[in-house]
Amino acid sequence: MDISERRKPFRIDCGDIYLQEFSIEDANHIHRISNQPEISYFLPDWKSTVEQRVEWLTHYEIPANKAFLEAADKTGNVADLFLKMGVFRKGTEELIGWCCSGIKEELPAPNREIMYAISSEHQGNGYATKASIGLIEYLFTHTNVDLLNAVALKYNDSSIKVIEKCGFTYQGQIKIDEEPYLHYRLDKSDYERSTQR
Predict the structure, then answer these.
(1) In what order do the strands lie in the sheet containing 95-103?
(2) 3-145: which CATH topology?
(3) Contact 148, 186 (CB under 8 A)
């Protein structure tokens, strides 16, 4: 393919940060962040070696993102497809985390969730909330998604604050892998009403 024909990476502007689909160049940064104790404690499935991360990006995450974005662009019907976006700081273009949406099989249908992580050195700046709101807005305006879920361990106070700031409503506790999680949902119509105020 001619270099001039390559499309630009898909991006969502979120103010002083932006979301951008993962690329192979992100592997080292994702590896570093996912292995930070503050991240791996809450998201152990993201922990990896650099080689594993390159393999996952190459064979799973990048093709899955492409399928999601093509479906969203053509019909809006994203079915059970996954979207994994890096969170980048404007100005430095540094990858500082991720914000993703996919099917959480442990939840009752419709079971599309949103999840996020911000590197330890950038936590406490509102980036997880801004990234989540950016992805929520995109999902509700460019896809057929009408309902989103979010879960957080009972003692993950910072994640619970992000979920609540994004307008999710508490549904109760749910056990996932024998751990008690708080379960939240956000309906598209409720989201639209809240943004019109």
Answers:
(1) 11-13, 17-21, 83-89, 95-103, 112-118, 147-153, 179-187, 169-176
(2) Aminopeptidase (3.40.630)
(3) yes
Residues in the chain: 197
CA of residue 69 relative to chain centroid, distance:
14
Q: Map residue 19 onto helix, strand or coil.
A: strand
pLDDT tens for the 197 residues of the chain, in order = 334 345 789 999 999 999 999 999 999 999 999 999 989 888 888 999 999 999 999 999 999 999 999 999 999 999 999 999 999 999 999 999 999 999 999 999 999 999 999 999 999 999 999 999 999 999 999 999 999 999 999 989 999 999 999 999 999 999 988 889 999 999 998 888 777 65
| Maximal C-alpha separation, the chain | 52
Cβ atoms of 169 and 158 within 8 Å: the answer is: no
Phi/psi at 102 (5° precision): -165, -175
Report yes or no: 134 and 14 within 8 Å, Cβ to Cβ: yes
Cα–Cα distances (Å) from 14 to 8, 17, 41, 78, 170, in that order, read: 18, 5, 27, 22, 25
Across-strand partners of 102? 113
